[in-house]
């Protein structure tokens, strides 16, 4: 097995929860409303950008929709058990680590800096106005195609064949990366385990793979 690069998802992979849901709750979006908006997107009623715009409008109704409060909310994330240890282990083994997420750039940057992951990409960027109120959620297409494109771009930049990559992830938006690399790793309770090359119970189990 000639693996050179290991790509990690963020939400519910390295960290415990969905960052979008946690931020939404803090800014007044209920679980029910969040699910309603998601279902509209998945059923094709709204596009990815329209989905983001609806979320943005709901955020703007809340007094905490500013850079300081959003940073504070996102900084409450918790790592999954063994996350820091496995990242150090893999770095010490010489693997190139990449963080690719459908989450928010603020959080992706926080985690990448904390874990010492040099290469990272978030599919959604928060843009703030001159008063630090959020004014736009800039995305680069749907997560599925975008995440694969980001991985392909990292491979080109680093001169690595995509078949020399492993993707550790848990969501439907990771399936195309699993298929292109042929090396998808997910968890035993994941809905995409039938697409995976290997299934693990926890991040610590990666030590038995690498």
Q: What structural class do you assign from the helix and strand content?
A: alpha/beta
Low-confidence stretches: none
CATH class of the largest domain: Alpha Beta
Largest sheet: 7 strands, mixed
Annotation field: number of helices: 8
Q: How would you write the strand order of the largest sheet?
A: 4-3-2-1-5-6-7
**Helix content estimate:** 40-55%
Write the layout of secondary structure elements.
Layout: E1 5-8, H1 19-26, H2 31-42, H3 48-59, H4 67-74, H5 83-92, E2 96-104, H6 105-115, E3 119-128, E4 134-139, H7 143-158, E5 165-168, H8 175-181, E6 184-187, E7 198-200
Parallel strand pairs: 1-2, 1-5, 2-3, 5-6, 6-7
Antiparallel strand pairs: 3-4
Helix pairs in contact: 2-3, 7-8
Structure commentary:
It is built from 8 helices and 7 strands, in the order E-H-H-H-H-H-E-H-E-E-H-E-H-E-E. Helix 2 runs antiparallel to helix 3 and helix 7 (143-158) packs parallel to helix 8. The chain has helices at 19-26, 31-42, 48-59, 67-74, 83-92, 105-115, 143-158, 175-181; strands at 5-8, 96-104, 119-128, 134-139, 165-168, 184-187, 198-200. The chain is α/β, with parallel strands linked by helices and 210 residues long. Strands 4-3-2-1-5-6-7 form a 7-stranded mixed sheet, sandwiched between helices.
């Amino acid at each position: 097995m000639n693996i050179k690069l290991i790509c990690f998802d963020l939400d519910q992979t390295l960290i415990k929860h969905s960052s979008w849901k946690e931020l939404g709750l803090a800014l007044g979006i209920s679980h029910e409303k969040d699910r309603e908006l998601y279902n509209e997107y998945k059923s094709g009623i709204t596009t990815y950008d329209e989905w983001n715009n609806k979320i943005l409008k709901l955020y703007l109704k809340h007094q905490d929709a500013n850079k300081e409060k959003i940073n504070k909310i996102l900084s409450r994330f918790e790592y999954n058990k063994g996350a820091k240890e496995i990242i150090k282990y893999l770095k010490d083994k010489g693997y190139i680590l990449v963080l690719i997420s459908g989450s928010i750039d603020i959080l992706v940057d926080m985690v990448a800096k904390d874990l010492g992951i040099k290469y990272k990409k978030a599919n959604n960027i928060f843009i703030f106005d001159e008063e630090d109120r959020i004014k736009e959620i800039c995305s680069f297409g749907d997560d599925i195609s975008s995440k694969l494109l980001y991985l392909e771009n990292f491979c080109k930049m680093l001169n690595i064949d995509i078949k020399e990559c492993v993707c550790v992830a848990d969501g439907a938006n990771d399936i195309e990366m699993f298929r292109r690399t042929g090396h998808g790793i997910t968890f035993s309770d994941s809905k995409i385990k039938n697409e995976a090359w290997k299934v693990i119970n926890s991040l610590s189990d990666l030590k038995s793979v690498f």
